[in-house]
Design goal:
Blueprint: E1 4-7, H1 11-21, E2 24-26, E3 38-40, H2 42-60, E4 65-68, H3 76-82, H4 84-87, E5 89-94, E6 101-103, E7 108-109, E8 112-113, E9 127-130, E10 134-136, E11 146-148, H5 154-159, H6 161-167, E12 174-183, E13 198-208, H7 213-230, E14 238-242, E15 254-262, E16 265-274, H8 278-287, E17 293-295, E18 300-302, E19 305-312, H9 313-324, E20 325-331, E21 337-343, E22 354-358, H10 363-376, E23 382-384, H11 390-398, E24 404-408, H12 412-415, E25 417-422, E26 428-432, H13 436-447
Parallel strand pairs: 4-12, 22-23, 22-24
Antiparallel strand pairs: 1-20, 2-3, 5-6, 5-9, 7-8, 10-11, 12-13, 13-19, 14-15, 15-16, 16-19, 17-18, 20-21, 24-25, 25-26
Helix pairs in contact: 2-9, 3-8
The protein binds adenosine-5'-triphosphate (ATP).
Length: about 450
């Protein structure tokens, strides 16, 4: 009988799975935790690395995009020129009744501001609060030594435009991709790893001739949509949301968000923006260095426009986990319910690609299982588990998304074969040990 499938209902199911199985822990938990900072455990760090690799490869294996890894700390003038010192603020309102502090736009309905916690409209006027974290460089803590933790990775790309273009000998159009930490002193962080104060961004800035900006903007929207589908996100839970003229950032010519339907509602997952020539022009003005591009063929000089795609790695990890989580309930002939939790991650993203499970703790079986683990580990991350019944071990692998379980049994020694169980269908197949590597590699390509 085919099982009833229940998707994720509530974020708490995922938070508890994440802690129990080592995907995500609260930061500094033994001290009571630190507000909205999270640590990725053994499985979470591997999963996150796989997500970053998928993005990085999709970007930098194109002939027209190159990579960069810029420093988190930058010259303070960068943030003056970019507008962050003056305008990277949220309007902050205090509720006079329950003392809740919230973002004005989070409490505004039909033009009226009221407290999202207690509903009171007895609130203060909005004050602008800058979201950048400040620190000091060097031994003296004075105004002259203030530096900021970057609130976005993009500026590292803009200030290196000239370095990258000349060293990589790139002609326009071309892009620069970067993955790195960003920091924002968010007023209302929350929803697990959705909005945090320290997070990783995956951004790509594509430099184009101004007249071509609209075309490339449309192309990148499609490319990014296809990428999210390829990672396995359900198309029905994705949509574009275009910024209206009044919502556009002061520098932007056009902006679309890709939104994902999280258990707590539709929310921004990725931003795709046409930033015009704002950033390069600002840095050109502020630094006094020319950031123009000379098109040799057309004998033309211009400041390129920028098409930007910006996605939070942690936010994408959350969307992928929410999307992949399912509970399957099968009622057997005796009317008893059998439940299994499955993380239906694409194998490319799953922390373990396979698990080696000796049917008993007898040494010959253990030895074969460990040898298989060692061999396959040259290509993939492979788990080994000998504790508990085989059924329990399958379930443990299902809920962390391991696509294959390899069972080593009492016949293995004589026939040199193992049983491979498929996570999604639970089908089992007998495979020769010497064919295992090819079998798994082929299934990855063919079945997903
Ligand atoms: P929001 O409106 O949610 O605050 P934003 O429009 O300020 O986001 P961008 O500056 O466009 O976001 O950043 C690009 C991407 O970086 C976002 O789409 C999101 O995926 C991610 N991101 C931004 N802020 C955070 C955060 N505090 N925690 C986690 N990810 C974030």
């Amino acid at each position: 009988m085919s099982p009833q499938i229940h998707p994720l209902k509530d974020l708490s199911q995922l938070v508890s799975l994440s802690k129990r199985r080592g995907f995500v822990f609260q930061s500094s938990e033994i001290y009571g935790g630190l507000g909205s900072c999270w640590d990725y455990g053994p499985l979470g760090s591997q999963f996150k690395l796989n997500v970053k690799a998928a993005w990085w490869n999709a970007m930098t294996r194109r002939p027209d995009v190159v990579g960069l890894d810029a420093a988190i700390l930058m010259h303070p003038q960068v943030w003056q020129a970019s507008g962050h010192l003056d305008t990277f603020t949220d309007p902050l309102v205090d509720c006079k009744e329950c003392k809740n502090r919230f973002r004005e736009d989070h409490g505004t309905k039909d033009g009226q501001v009221s407290c999202p916690k207690c509903g009171s409209s007895n609130v203060t006027e909005a004050r602008n609060f800058n979201l950048m974290f400040k620190t000091f460089m060097g031994p003296v803590e004075n105004d002259g030594s203030v530096v900021y933790l970057r609130p976005e990775t993009a500026q590292g790309i803009f200030v290196n435009f000239e370095n990258v273009q000349t060293s990589a000998r790139k002609k326009i159009p071309f892009g620069i991709a970067q993955i790195g930490k960003s920091f924002r002193n968010e007023i209302t962080p929350g929803n697990f790893i959705f909005r945090t104060r320290e997070f990783e961004q995956m951004e790509m800035q594509y430099f184009v001739k101004p007249e071509m900006a609209d075309d490339f903007y449309a192309q990148w929207k499609q490319t990014r949509w296809n990428f999210l589908l390829r990672l396995g996100l359900n198309e029905g839970r994705l949509r574009f949301s275009e910024h209206g003229k009044d919502e556009l950032a002061h520098y932007a010519k056009a902006a679309d968000d890709v939104e994902y339907q999280f258990p707590f509602g539709w929310q921004e997952l990725e931003g795709i923006h046409n930033r015009g020539d704002f950033d390069l022009s600002q840095h050109q003005k502020s630094s006094g260095k020319k950031l123009e591009y000379f098109d040799e063929a057309a004998k033309e000089k211009y400041v390129p426009y920028v098409i930007e795609t910006a996605i939070g790695c942690d936010r994408l990890c959350l969307a992928l986990l929410c999307d992949a989580y399912r509970e399957e309930v099968t009622v057997n002939d005796n009317g008893k319910e059998d439940r299994r939790v499955v993380l239906g991650l694409k194998p490319e993203l799953a922390p373990y690609k396979a698990a080696c499970l000796p049917l008993s703790k007898k040494e010959p079986l253990q030895n074969v299982a460990k040898k298989i683990q060692e061999d396959l580990s040259q290509d993939w991350s492979i788990d080994y588990d000998e504790a508990g019944s085989i059924g329990k071990r399958y379930r443990r692998q299902d809920e962390v998304g391991t696509p294959f379980c390899i069972t080593i049994d009492f016949d293995t020694e004589s026939d040199q074969k193992v049983t491979v169980r498929h996570r999604d269908t639970m089908e089992q197949e007998r495979v020769s040990i010497d064919q295992l590597r090819n079998y798994i590699a082929q299934k990855f390509i063919l079945n997903w």
